[in-house]
Model the fold of this input.
Amino acid sequence: MYDLVRGVRTRLTFGPGSNHNPTWSPDGADIAYASDREGRTQVCRKAANATGKEERLLESALNDSPCSWSPDGRLLALERQGAEGNFNVWILPLAGDRKPQQFLESSFRTVQPQFSPNGKWLAYASTESGGMDVYIVPYPAGSGKWPVSTAGGAYPRWRRDGKELYYLSPDDKMMAAQIGESAGKLEVGAPRALFQVRQIARLGAPYDVTADGSHSSSPSRLNPPPSRSRWSSTGPPN
Done:
């Protein structure tokens, strides 16, 4: 972790293997992340102040990676890689028996789920159109599915007020689409390019947006993003 105010780095995880996909709890007290130290990707949690022990949130023979907390902090939206290698969206309750439930079932690659700030919608990326695109569906139930990207996209992120959704285009631009609600239905505006992205991560989310939506940040010590052709065939890396 990097403290933007003090300019201090703090190590959160230790031990062998790779730890990635960090996501803050809504109250900022905890960080959920994926760890592959035992040969498969598991969901873990640790206090954001780096004290205490790591807690494994889910015992599974499959590969699971956390992507987003629900606004009340009771749920985690996961990417789960099934036995056949395909990715789908699951929801993990953090209380009770912690039995995950599949939310989106598809033969396509369905990844990067993000709860809306009011908890009524879930944004995600999928290859169902033939290339990777961004969609929004109601949560936890309801009819309708709204495409957001019009020429490919991935890594959706909500503005804190829920009125805008950001994503990355295949040609490495930060995109934004206005989001509105009317009579329980979603209204998605035409995407617009905000700026060119120079570098993105190859593992985990490549950027995040500040609470007021005025800034985005991404690690700088990274490899160049994959090409459009790679996105169109398999989607971007998780």
Q: What stands out?
A: The radius of gyration is 17 Å.
